[in-house]
Amino acid sequence: MREMSKDLNISRERIQFIVKMNLKKISYKLCRGNHLIEAMKAKRLVNARKILRLVRACRLQNVLFMDEKIFTIQRGHNHQNDRQLLGKGFQKLPAENFITRNHFPSSVMVWACICSPGLTQLVFIKKNIKINAAIYQQSIFRNVLHPCVTRNFNEKKYVLHSARTTISLCKELFLGFGHLVHPTSMQ
């Protein structure tokens, strides 16, 4: 709207009025989204149908869903909403004119597993620990998940939702292991 008002040499408000009232258009911000090719859509559909079959067969109580997330501890910045409210005649404070951002902000990785008996304990991975398959399998699968599964599932058959790299460890640790891929995964 600003560019059109400059090009046409009319006020921005007048351009907004013309667009809204005469052209019957509304301005929307563009949203970000994933570009999915047909093969990805088909794979997601197959995986979603597998999960639906489990739901229909009332077998979701035998599924463990797990994931990890890295939380960055840093103040977010929104250009439109971060403002300073000052009284008339007050100067902006130089120290508060800027929102700084660290090049390597503090972060923490948290892992959790949800299943029908409830939530496992949360696992917090310490900073500066390089997460590789061996660390992941030891600190999460052997130390947390295996005791939880043994305690809650005994010898029942169950399915683990897991990454491809840990499937062999799961077959070793868990009786009746079956693999279920999340619908959004491309494994």
Please describe what this structure looks like:
With 187 residues, the protein is α/β, with parallel strands linked by helices. It has 2 domains: 1-32, no CATH class; 33-74 and 104-187, Nucleotidyltransferase, domain 5. The chain has 5 helices and 6 strands. It has helices at 2-8, 12-22, 38-56, 133-153, 167-173; strands at residues 63-73, 106-115, 118-119, 123-125, 159-161, 179-180. Strands 1, 2, 3, 4, 5 and 6 form a 6-stranded mixed beta sheet that branches. Strand 2 and strand 3 (118-119) form a beta hairpin. The longest helix is centred in the last third of the chain and has 21 residues, at 133-153. The two termini are 44 Å apart. The model has no long low-confidence stretch (mean pLDDT 76).
Summarize the topology.
Blueprint: H1 2-8, H2 12-22, H3 38-56, E1 63-73, E2 106-115, E3 118-119, E4 123-125, H4 133-153, E5 159-161, H5 167-173, E6 179-180
Task: Please provide the ordered H/E string of secondary-structure elements.
Answer: HHHEEEEHEHE
* Low-pLDDT regions: none
Give the N-to-C terminal Cα separation. 44 Å
How would you characterize the largest beta sheet? 6 strands, mixed
The number of E-state strands comes to 6
Mean pLDDT over the residues? 76
Number of domains: 2
CATH class of the largest domain: Alpha Beta
Structural class determined from secondary elements: alpha/beta
CATH topology annotation of the largest domain: Nucleotidyltransferase, domain 5
Helix content percent band = 25-40%
CATH architecture level-2 label of the largest domain? 2-Layer Sandwich
Shape: elongated
Number of helices: 5
Q: Beta-strand level of the residues, as a percent range?
A: 15-25%
CATH superfamily of the largest domain: Ribonuclease H-like superfamily/Ribonuclease H
Computed CA radius of gyration, to the nearest angstrom: 26 Å
